[in-house]
Amino acid sequence: WIDPDAAGVEDLIAVARACPSGAITYERHDGGAAEAAPEVNTVRVRENGPLAVHAALQVAGQPACHRATLCRCGHSASKPFCDGAHATHGFTATGEPPTTAETDPLAARDGVLTVTPAPNGPLLVTGNCELLSGTGRLVKRADKLALCRCGASQNKPFCDGTHSAAAFRASGEPATIDTAPLAERGGALEITPLPD
């Protein structure tokens, strides 16, 4: 679905920017602007799938990035990142959680968003963030969130402590992801695939 040799640089950049997981990235060598962090940090709840994060993102000590999909089904072999296991395990959870009452405006909508996987527990998100439904509706504005990653919460996407009763096990350390460039395309673009 990506043929770098048959597309223009701007078309390839558009494909990379549309990738919610950050598995497709780019690095310009023609003096063009690099990808910038968004003006608004967002965490989007995907129907029956992961959390899609777009922010100046720091996940558990990994290299900084702007996009990532984070597991919320509890079955990913690449926790805290999504590896598509939700599809093979039949994970079901709405992408349209109700809007919470606490949606006061934040002092700022950008800045570094840090995600720390709690050992055997939720994803702890700190930094300015807008939690959105899959269709883009605002669910909550917050600077601290505890989001379910075990798949068992009765209050998804939020953690309700069920991970303890469900005997969820996951370290607080992320899976290792090799972000070294694997191919250079068109003289002005590097496509860096991440493992599935």
What secondary-structure arrangement, pairings included, does this model have?
Layout: H1 9-18, E1 42-45, E2 51-59, E3 65-70, H2 85-88, E4 112-117, E5 123-132, E6 138-147, H3 162-165, E7 183-185, E8 189-191
Parallel strand pairs: 1-5, 2-4
Antiparallel strand pairs: 1-2, 2-3, 4-5, 5-6, 7-8
Features of this protein?
mainly beta, six-stranded mixed beta sheet, 26% strand
Radius of gyration: 17 Å
Shape by Cα distribution: globular
First CA to last CA: what distance? Answer: 16 Å
Helix content: under 10%
Mean pLDDT over all positions? 85
Uncertain regions spanning at least 5 consecutive residues = 176-196
User: Can you count the helices?
Assistant: 3
The main β sheet shows up as: 6 strands, mixed
Question: Oligomeric state of the chains?
Answer: single chain
Q: Could you tell me the strand content as a percent range?
A: 25-35%
- The total strand number stands at 8
Order of helices and strands: HEEEHEEEHEE
SS class: mainly beta
